[in-house]
Amino acid sequence: MIDIKIYDYIENSELKNYWDQLYQINLDQDVISHPFIFNNYDWNKSWVINIKDNKKLFICILVKINDTPILLIPMLLRRVLNFNFAELIGGKETDYQNILINKILYSKNKRIILKKLRDIFRKKKIYYLRNKSINDELTINFFKDLFNYSYIFKYDESSYLKLNKSGLNLPKKVHKNIIRTKKKHEITSYTIKKNDKDFDEVLDKLIKTKNIHYLSNRVKEMPKERIIFYRDIALKEFSQLSCTKINNNFSSFHLGIKDRDTLIYLLPTYEKKFSSLSPGWIHLDFLIQNSISNNLKTLDLTFGNESYKKRLKCHKLNIFYVFAFNNLLILPLVAIEIVFKRLYNSSRLRYYFYLIKVKLTK
Questions:
Q1: Which candidate among 140, 242, 256, 324 keeps its CA 20 to 30 Å from the CA of 87?
Q2: Helices (H), the chain
Q3: CB 96 within 8 A of CB 133
């Protein structure tokens, strides 16, 4: 029998058990081609506790049959007039925002599941969902089926590098420069575990250096709640903290997360005083070689148009913005939002917005 439960507290032990179970089912079914460590319970628990806007209500809808989970929808609700507007949890920190689905059981029970969920959404007055950073076809099709109306457009692209054990993974010129630098300087790169004595020091330097880069680019530094979040994530088993020293001085840092056979390039930075020696490339080379040694097959560089990605032989993964709604009364609002998001998504207009922001902060 199909049963639906709603949780309003992410630290609920029963919810954790179902979440972990469904996460493992997704691993076993291997139906999702992209990294979905961002669906991990510990990642999302930390995000909700440390980052979530307190003005928004957390709920998690669980669909199960007997005691086997089928579907998990963790959302934030924001009240607007007499409606609830929904979004998946994760915010800016979560590069891929998708839901966990037991594809086999969902396909067998799709009609009854959708009917029950529509009733719940109607009772809770959840008439509108908007979400960027969705890249999973199962998630997109689920929301298209759940809501009466939907509009989806390509928001961005993420880049990932298929690691080559026998050949070069970096551009030849970069590789030659790294070899030349290693001959002239003492280069040491290594990973740091949470029990190592220099763990806190390296993490502190990573955050401090990242904030220096933000400020130099006229971007606000990392807010306190995000720093607390990344500190917590760094302690998780799926995280990897690493650094590079040049002549015994810290030069570059990285906090990444591991997903199956993939390392996600999450939070890299470097000391500007070493810029002439390309510490970012040196550390990226270390991460690639370390990943290959640990049988990882992919380095996921996530989305963004950083210039270094253009020099790599990257594969691309489309990222989508999803607008889904049930009530035509909010169509004008949805239309305005879609137009604005599409305009902002134009690379040229985004650049103009950036220039305006820079001028305003001078």
A1: 256
A2: 13-29, 41-50, 103-108, 110-123, 137-146, 172-184, 199-216, 224-234, 279-293, 331-345, 347-361
A3: yes
Contact between residue 301 and residue 158 where contact means Cβ atoms under 8 Å apart: yes
Residue 134 bridge partners (DSSP): 320
Cα angle: 361, vertex 209, 241; to 5 degrees: 135
pLDDT tens digits, one per residue of 58-68 = 999 999 999 99
d(CA 74, CA 311): 37
Q: Are 68 and 40 in contact (CB under 8 A)?
A: no
| Alpha-carbon distances of 356 from 222, 317, 339, 353, 361, rounded to whole Å | 21, 30, 20, 5, 9
Per-residue pLDDT at 362 exceeds 60:
no
11 to each of 24, 44, 135, 228, how far by Cα in Å? Answer: 19, 10, 27, 18
Domains assigned to the chain: 2-153 (3.40.630), 164-296 (3.40.630.30)
Query: How far is it, in rounded angstroms, from Cα 311 to Cα 171?
Result: 7
**C-alpha distance across the termini of the chain, in Å:** 61
The token duo for 337 is 């939002």
Vertex 191, ends 249 and 169: CA angle to 5°? Answer: 95
Q: How confident is the model at residue 33 (pLDDT cuts 50, 70, 90)?
A: low
Dist. CA 45–CA 11, nearest whole Å: 7
Three-state SS string across 286-320, please? HHHHHHHHCCCCEEEEEECCCHHHHHCCCEEEEEE
